[in-house]
Amino acid sequence: MPKETSASSFKPYIPASAQLPEMTARALIMGVILGMIFGASSLYLVLKVGLTVSASIPVAVIAITLFRLFNKFGGKDSTILENSITQTAGSAGESLAFGLGVTMPAILILGFDLEISRVMLVGCLGGLLGILMMIPMRRTMIVEKHGELKYPEGTACAEVLKAAATDTSREAAGESSNPHAQDDANRRAKIIFAGFGIGLLYKIANVAFKGWKDTPEVTFGAPLKAGSLGAEVSPELLGVGYIIGPRIAAVMAAGGVMSYLLLIPMIKFFGDALLTPLAPATKLISEMSPHDIRSAYILYIGAGAVAAGGLISLVRAMPTIWRSLSAGLAGMRNGKNDAAATLRTDQDIPMKWVVIGALAIIAIITFATPLHMNFLGALLILVFGFLFVTVSSRLTGEIGSSSNPISGMTVATLLFTCLIFLLMGWTGGQYYVTALSVGAIVCIASSNGGTTSQDLKTGYLVGSTPRLQQYAILAGALSSALILGPILLKLNDAGTVYVPAAQVAPALSTDASKLTETASLQGPQAEQDKASYKVWHKTDTVGGPAGKYLVDTAGKAVYLVDPGINGAYNKRPDGTEVKKYDAPKAVLMSYIIKGILDQQLPWTLVLFGVMIALVLEMAGIPSLAFAVGVYLPLSSSAPLFIGGMIRWLVDRRNNKLDQYKSLNEEEMQAAGDRSSGVLLSSGYIAGGALAGIVIAFTAGILTGFDKAIGDWATAHNPFFEGAYANGLTLIPYAVIILTLYMVAREKNVKAS
Questions:
Q1: What would the pLDDT profile of 143-194 be if each residue is shown by its tens digit?
Q2: 544: left (phi over 0), alpha (psi -120 to 50) or beta
Q3: Residues 83, 89, 94, 98: is their CA dihedral positive or negative?
Q4: Cα separation of 687 and 575, whole Å?
Q5: Interatomic CA distance for residues 544 and 515, integer angstroms
Q6: Buried b (16+ CB within 10 A) or exposed e, 330-347
Q7: Sheet strands (E) in 161-227
Q8: Residues 433-474: pLDDT tens digits?
Q9: Which of 98, 308, 433, 577 has the highest local Cβ count within 10 Å?
Q10: Is the pLDDT assigned to residue 202 strictly greater than 50?
Q11: DSSP states of 538-556 as a string?
Q12: Rounded Cα gap, residues 745 and 309, in angstroms
């Protein structure tokens, strides 16, 4: 293995003395736009399956391609430093989307409205705080620990940028012109754009035009009564599975198998003969479908397992946490004065502006009305924010963004915050929002801190100016935060069902004179009922389920508002189906808040989940990935498993080729992470996820078209409905699987 380069002897690709265009308007604008696009697709993914994948390499490849295209039409080609700025600004959206998707939907689950001002404030403040807190630690984490902290995604992205460097950039780097650089960059671009096109068209044909069934599923009878198998045949989940790899994908799918082929059949077997409902369910197990059993019991078991898995991963990282904090504080004490920095590659945003910015953010957090914040909450954000941004940066350097336990850090923040609130006697509904705001801002700050570290590592390797990168990611984070809030609300609205109260809570009523908020139906159901109602946030289960109700002037409940995120009803009164988002980690956050502040949680089921996580850890299996699989529908984790298996087959073949024989395991992994298969998978993810968002957005506008297509497909399309639909649906899915496998296979290159 080659000897690591020390920080003192390291020379970046573009030397500090070189003067190339870097922070140009076109580079920043393109980065911001790409950040919004990948942020939107990442938000869609985190709501569906609770995870995202790094956007840095896809953003870099697309930026290089678009600049080359601009050059062909007479414009000036980009430099490697401009491409670095674009990917830096573009990567902020993905980390923000993860933080928002993990935390903000919990407000809905807790029975409050998802206010646009609250979501945008949390996104902006958390994103900016994470970046500002990372800046003082750059020299310690990126420069001084250069040989120790790998930052795998950042290093792989730097390799992509260097491989596509233009002649101008190569000349500045002291290299000879590479006639193959443009061909290689064009090849990569074709793959990712082809993946985007395939993902987009496949999803539109599948979901919008009902070309084939989107989730083939089979339910078993005895001896596995109520057990089921299913898979969502979507390109975005297939791509995610390929990128996260076979190990994590298989462990997640194993969790789903436990839920759907063990726990649900066991509950059905032992509870079928019960003559009374078994709490927390409100109806007999004999009358429950597999979906009902999952909603009543498995979700709590899964939440307990996820909480335990997150905390275990955090405890395991405690030695690293301590080293990170010590190194970060020492670096801040011993760091150079910004004004004295003479090298372009060693210039950060001046420390005075970092301090002023951080204090301004804390002041806004304290006094912002939508956050329901107080001084103690702001202080907790400052303490936990600095702690976990430091930890996130260090862990990202050691194990990469995908394995960084941000969820565990958020769980720990919420646990400590809620326990402090409980000791203070703060247990009302207002403090739900305060506690969640603390957790959300810390989660986003930690996530963005890790992403900032990866980007600064990329810049360090290629020779970017840190100060300009920091400005770029601040701009990218702020821009993405402004659009992700409205997208989150729209996705929720598109899946919201107004359930007639007579179905779920007959004769339910309240005192209407105490209600001040009013609302009317939104989306397709608004066409049948345009009346205005009073809003009642019901927090108990007396007389009907807790949740948001629309009541008439007499106080009688007319509708239960079932949200699109983590809602229980997937059919409107007219029979049309609605796509819901499980938001697994947001559910966990809501359970922690309600369980501690109100002690309203079926702790027995939660502890069963904790025991599952402990058993897995004792067996040497990563419990967090398994726990997320227990919580998610098997139909969501099955396509991840398929993608992971394709990656295993491809890597097994490619690693035998001549060009890989001399590489160690770490170098093989890095090569795989920037391979053709990863690029095509990134395209699948972006195309499929963005098509899903557009379809959800237009659901309320094209209701008649959607119903007409659905009725026709149900009556005439054997791929969508009928005895053979489950099998026929696998044909188009097999096509995109085979395409991924064939593109990912590499040709043998013999050493010359």
A1: 777 766 777 677 777 877 887 788 788 888 776 666 666 677 677 778 878 8
A2: left
A3: positive
A4: 29
A5: 18
A6: ebeeebeebeebeebbbb
A7: 217-219
A8: 888 888 888 888 888 888 888 889 889 988 899 999 999 999
A9: 98
A10: yes
A11: E-S-TTS-SEEEEE-TTSB
A12: 35
Check if the beta carbon of residue 607 is closer than 8 Å to that of residue 304: yes
Tokens of 404: 């960084």
The pair of three-digit structure tokens given for residue 438, joined into one six-digit string: 């603390």
- Dist. CA 526–CA 522, nearest whole Å: 5
668, two tokens: 């093989």
What percent of the chain clears pLDDT 90, i.e. is strictly above it?
A: 19
Mean pLDDT, range 627-644, rounded to an integer = 88
In terms of Cα–Cα distance, which of 210, 108, 237 is closest to 681?
Answer: 237
Per-residue DSSP letter, 532: E
Name residue 360's amino acid.
A
* Token pair of 74 as six digits: 């007479």
Q: How many CA atoms lie within 13 A of 136 on its CB side?
A: 25
What are the pLDDT digits (tens) for 257-277? Answer: 999 999 999 999 999 989 898
d(CA 478, CA 92): 9
Q: What is the layout of strands, in order, in the sheet containing 518-520?
A: 497-500, 557-562, 547-551, 532-538, 518-520
In 3D, which of 122, 552, 32, 17 has the Cα closest to residue 373? 122
Residue 501 burial (CB < 10 Å; 0-12/13-18/19+)?
buried
> Which residue, among 9, 87, 33, 62, has the nearest Cα to 459 in the 3D structure?
87
pTM, to two decimals: 0.74
Q: Select, from the ranges 45-49, 219-223, 644-648, the one with the highest average predicted confidence (pLDDT).
A: 644-648
Give the tokens for residue 595.
């369980």
- How would DSSP label each residue in 695-737? HHHHTTTSHHHHHHHHHHHHHH-TTTSSTTHHHHTHHHHHHHH
Distance CA 720, CA 723 (A): 10
Is residue 732 a contact partner of residue 202, using CB atoms and an 8 Å limit? yes
Report the C-alpha gap between 240 and 224 in whole angstroms. 30
| Rounded CA separation 127/444 (Å) | 6
Around Cβ 376, how many Cβ atoms within 10 Å? 16
- How far is Cα 510 from Cα 539, in angstroms, rounded to an integer? 12
For residue 619, give both structure tokens. Answer: 């067996």
Phi/psi at 189 (nearest 5 deg)? Answer: -65, -40
CA 731, distance to chain mean position in Å, is 29
Please write the tens of the pLDDT for every residue from 348-378.
Answer: 888 788 888 888 988 888 888 888 787 888 8
